Amino acid sequence: MNSHQSRRFFVITGATATAAWALHRTLPTWQVEASAKPAIPHDVVIVEYSDQGQNEGKKTVQTIVKTDAEWKQMLSKESYDVTRHAGTETPYTGKYWDLHDKGLFRCICCGTALFTSETKYDSHTGWPSFWQPLAKENVRETLDTSFGEERTAVSCQLCDAHLGHLFDDGPQPTGLRYCMNSASLRFVKFA
């Protein structure tokens, strides 16, 4: 290999390695691990709620698993990017960040009840924020090491939709801030 060829090989190899490293770093750890193996339905326990917010009890159900094409077909582009690829909507652009109506926030993908307006507050971040989920069983928290920092990612327990992140700078009584994406939620107004 002459010096011109070896220089070209070095540049191409370096660029390829850098691109692969950057892509891996932008995906949350849990998503990289999940994408490496196909999802297999399994039993989970969730708490079901009526559209009026009445607790209907715990229920054991199988997780919802769909192909990427099926999720793409049923969701808007933004909801698909957020829920299936851990995207984040631009602050102050989602339809629920400044919503003050009384009701439930359900998963956009599967309808699982996640949050209620009673725990929603203005976090001044541009995303809908809650100081606790409706039922701890309905959400899953995992370590997200993307962007060189450790955060807690929040997903729907039933369908694994990425919802947002959890921070410890919220109001009392919990001191928590569940910072969610409007694109991952569907609001059901109390009658």
Structure description:
Mean pLDDT is 86; it is low at 3-36. The protein has helices spanning 3-26, 29-35, 68-74, 77-85, and strands at 43-49, 55-62, 103-107, 113-116, 120-121, 129-130, 139-144, 151-156, 162-167, 177-180, 185-189. The chain is globular, with a radius of gyration of 20 Å. The chain has 191 residues and is of the alpha+beta class. The strands form three sheets. A six-stranded antiparallel sheet has the order 5-6-10-9-8-7. A three-stranded antiparallel sheet has the order 4-3-11, with no helix packed on it. The protein is 25% helix and 29% strand. It has a single domain (28-189), classed as Peptide methionine sulfoxide reductase (Metal Binding Protein, Guanine Nucleotide Exchange Factor, Chain A), CATH 2.170.150.
How much helicity do the residues have?
Answer: 10-25%
- With helices defined by DSSP (H or I, 4 residues minimum), what is the helix count? 4
The CATH fourth-level homologous superfamily: Peptide methionine sulfoxide reductase
SSE sequence, one letter per element = HHEEHHEEEEEEEEE
Mean of residue pLDDT? 86
Tags for this entry?
191 residues; alpha+beta; Metal Binding Protein, Guanine Nucleotide Exchange Factor, Chain A; three-stranded antiparallel β-sheet; 4 helices; 29% strand; disordered N terminus
Summary?
The chain is α+β, with helices and mostly antiparallel strands and 191 residues long.
